[in-house]
Design brief:
With 406 residues, the chain is of the alpha/beta class. 40% of the residues lie in helices and 19% in strands. It folds into 2 domains: 140 residues, Rossmann fold (3-Layer(aba) Sandwich), CATH 3.40.50; 252 residues, 3-Layer(aba) Sandwich (Rossmann fold).
């Protein structure tokens, strides 16, 4: 059975979105088309007969509709293959899947393959509601949006310095302070942020990039994972063969994230990686995490010098010395001279706290020595009021603040 492709172009008084109908079953197609009389668009008589996937895609390329009503029965190929072919069109229409029944497995497959809505009888309510949602979203995306959220990257001077740990805890602290926070893992070598945040991730950064051309809030909420601490997490595509495409699509994702979150924390892995260099122009700041060990400090200094040569603003680069011993041989002032760059914060070596927290599959509490220092760092980084001082000691800028016993 061939598909009939009918186009609903822009209408002068009522529609700003063009719609096409591709439904093989003539009876189902008639019912859908009849329902469109009350939709945000109006129907014309231009038709195109299509019997294969190639003919369907050719017809869509000619008509260039913004929305496609696609019947899932009688397709010339598997629904996932058809939807994938449609998604590769430039520009690709937003697909509303149409079916006689609401089968959960079929709905899930269609949405995963690229459909933005799934409708079934009664069409008088379901179809019109779906069209109204898609049209509203199209109109919203057509309007320029202000990018208000801040984006901060975290990178370790070398592996094991703790940038991921700090990024996860900083995200959790900001969320506790009632800020909308996204933790995005761009570490393509290990990608541990999702595990530390205890996310059962179904999708990764690669999925988000692949669907960026039709991204809206509803699709984003279906892709992003939510951690127990309340932070939204987009896990890394660490095992993906398409790492370059992830990096190239990061900037478009960042523009979207800024409209949805007050703070986007980006885990960039370690070293002067392609992820770090590719993300620089989209970031408002970079937190470079080192330890006080000589190899890490050397690597940190090289990264600082390399970023300065690339004209990255010096005041955007925040150097954090992590796991500082209580009685370190080299103090902050001396380290600054060695590094040729100011130290933004020093965090204590609180191995026991972190080890105990991770053994229980949770983050460290903010009432611990590490948590208190981390809270001060995160608050300062975000421009928030510093947290109230606790009675117990905490590290800050290489000094231990006195507790009850002074």
């Amino acid at each position: 059975m061939s598909l009939v492709l009918e186009t609903i172009p822009e209408a002068e008084a009522r529609a700003t979105i063009s719609v096409a109908v591709a439904i093989a079953d003539p009876e189902l197609r008639s019912r859908v088309v009849a329902t469109l009389g009350n939709s945000p668009a109006s129907l014309t008589c231009e038709n195109c007969q299509t019997g294969t996937l190639e003919e369907l895609l050719t017809g869509l390329e000619r008509l260039r509709p913004e929305i496609l009503l696609l019947g899932l029965s009688g397709l010339p190929d598997d629904a996932a293959v058809v939807l994938s072919g449609i998604e590769n069109l430039k520009p690709a229409p937003r697909v509303i899947a149409v079916n006689e029944t609401a089968e959960p497995e079929l709905i899930l497959r269609a949405m995963r393959a690229g459909a933005v809505e799934f409708v079934y009888p009664p069409f008088e309510t379901h179809l019109n509601d779906a069209l109204c949602r898609v049209v509203a979203e199209q109109n919203r995306l057509a309007q320029p949006e202000s990018e208000t959220g801040a984006a901060i990257g975290f990178v370790s001077a070398k592996g094991g310095c703790g940038a991921t740990t700090i990024a996860c805890h900083a995200s959790s602290y900001l969320n506790r302070e009632k800020k909308a926070v996204l933790l995005a893992d761009l570490d393509t070598s290990s990608g541990m942020a999702g595990q530390l945040m205890r996310c059962s991730a179904g999708y990764s950064m690669e999925d988000a990039v692949q669907h960026m051309h039709r991204m809206d809030l509803k699709l984003w909420k279906a892709l992003v994972s939510n951690s127990p601490s309340g932070v939204d997490v987009m896990p890394s595509a660490a095992d993906s063969p398409n790492r370059d495409s992830v990096s190239s699509g990061f900037h478009r994702l960042m523009r979207f994230w800024r409209t949805q979150y007050e703070f986007t924390i980006v885990d960039l892995g370690h070293g002067l990686s392609a992820s770090l260099l590719g993300a620089l122009e989209s970031l408002d700041g970079v937190v470079l995490v080192s330890t006080n060990e000589v190899p890490a400090l050397r690597q940190a200094r090289q990264i600082i010098q390399s970023l300065v040569r690339r004209n990255f603003p010096v005041d955007y680069l925040k150097l954090v010395v992590n796991r500082m011993p209580r009685r370190a041989e080299i103090q902050s002032a001396e380290l600054e001279k060695v590094m040729g760059h100011p130290i933004y914060a020093v965090l204590p070596n609180d191995y026991r706290t972190l080890n105990e927290a991770y053994s229980k599959s949770r983050l460290a509490g903010f009432d611990t020595v590490f948590g208190a220092a981390l809270s001060e760092f995160a608050a300062r980084m975000a421009g928030l009021e510093p947290p109230a001082k606790k009675a117990r000691g905490s590290f800050w800028f290489g000094k231990e603040s006195p507790g009850k016993d002074g």
